[in-house]
Queue: 2 jobs
Job 1
Amino acid sequence: MSKQWTVHNPEGSQRVIVTKELPGDRWLDILVAANCSVEVCESSDVLTGDDIKERFGGGVDGVIGQLTEDWNADLFAALAAAGGRAYSNYAVGYNNVDVAGATAAGIPVGNTPGVLTETTAEMAAALTLAAGRRVVEADRFMRGGHYHGWLPTMYMGQRFHGKTVGIIGCGRIGAAFGRIMVEGFKMHLVYYDLYPNERLESFVADYSELLVAHGEAPVMATRLESIDDVLRTADVVSLHTVLDESTTHLIDASRLSLMKENAILINSSRGPVIDEAALVEHCRTHPDFKAGLDVFEDEPAMKPGLADLDNVTIVPHIASATTWTRQGMATLAAANVAAILQGYPVWDGEDVLTFLEGDVPKFAPSIVNAGELGLS
Ligand code: DGY
């Protein structure tokens, strides 16, 4: 059945398709200021490649698409054939995008970094606390009318203070999560990443000095040699890798078996980084082990048995879901498309927050294949 679309600024001279409704107004203002007519799909169904191609119709200039859509080489070729010159994912992650295929079709691919960092890290922390302190289980117990009086042994969980947090993939989000756990719970930090995160290590060293100066115990940040070392050492392990061939099923049955019996595993990166069937089995046979998941291997489906486990806390891919972040993502995605369509350069600074207010941006905030396409 064909989907409902809302058209904004129909007199605009360039046509931009937005495959889902986006929050806020600034993103639309940016596209309208770039003289675009903007067509927004109102359906919450995931659009297929054929749905999207059908909407290209006789011609389209740019698209803002979703992480749930398969932006493969064929779709980018169709976009280019329809006159398309710009695409932005409404996400920082772009494992749903065939970037080589887009580059071959001459299409710049935008993403939305920098506005999800703390928000996603905060959700990883929320899942850690919920899992470790059994918040969801206890909530269900209360709502079920089972609380008949305080007991010394009721819903005992984990204490975080002074324990060790482990980060796998210590980029922006991983480091932000690490800092929350170090600063909030005075945890030691171990991490595995291909590259050292010197900024994080130096922050933790300075923070440790501050703690010691106030008569508290020091904390340490250490980059370990391997993922296995992190899994063996940490009490809480949080995954912050990209998803590609090298990270698919990075956490499988054998790696789960390295973790402490009562460890907590958090995933707010991409579902397939964990072998979810192996996790179900591990959680079933290790009741003291906890997992907090924002993402799922076959999203939106869950592997059989996952939802039956009390030691698993599950939320529907909402780690970036704060109003500020989701509006910021919309702004960055729109600015990516509008800037490319107007021939503006690609931003080369780290800080994209400058795009979130003030004048209409005259840069594309983040184009992942800018180098390959010779854009600067
Ligand atoms: C992303 O941006 O990659 C998140 O998964 C969704 O916000």
Note: The chain has two domains: 5-115+322-356, 117-314.
Job 2
Amino acid sequence: MGLIFLGASEAQKRTQAPILAQGNIMRLIFLGPPGAGKGTQAAILAQELNIPHISTGDLLRSAIAQKTALGILAQAYLESGELVPDALIMAMMGKRLAEFDALGGWILDGFPRNLSQAQALDRLLQILGQSHPQAVNFNVATESLIARMLQQGRKDDNENLIRRRLEVYQEKTTPLINFYKQRRCLIDIDGNLTPEAVNQSIRAKLSLAVPV
Ligand code: ADP
């Protein structure tokens, strides 16, 4: 963790002035069960806002493909649908959020995934001198989730793994909805609509102009 924070402060030193001068930096957390369409929406909105889309699932899969130490440690958790230990996730995210492109805002997809990650994210943002993020919660009926995931899922997704990931979401991640609601920074989105309609509804609720 020492190295991570050193990285953060170096990056901060380089960019502190421009960041303080910028208003309206978008820091968004996309919350929702697997299959809710978070990844699709995060990719679209990130491109529209010109901020990075940071997906912990993608970062972990790429670490596994590259056989890094993180990837080797994380692999069994991904294969069983369990959460990767918080310490590994925080090391990965501490490093990623301290990168230059993350200083002007981001969309987090797949993180935080439990209460202790949300609290660790708060501490990390405090260290980075960044304000609280806004959470966007995707609501989709469970039957649609399983159907969607089986239809468009990665080749490693089978129904048992999907069900386990949904259970883990219910147990570990849903408490975050209240965590951000109590802080009055949660937006609820109906994820059952078409991707275009969901994008419009997110923009409307975040008071973002519709792109021309
Ligand atoms: P989804 O299909 O839900 O978008 P992800 O690609 O976000 O799934 O995540 C796939 C797997 O990666 C999870 O089942 C979990 O094992 C691991 N993972 C991703 N993000 C986290 C996190 N923040 N904490 C712990 N494990 C994570």
Note: The CA atoms of residues 134 and 185 lie 5 Å apart.
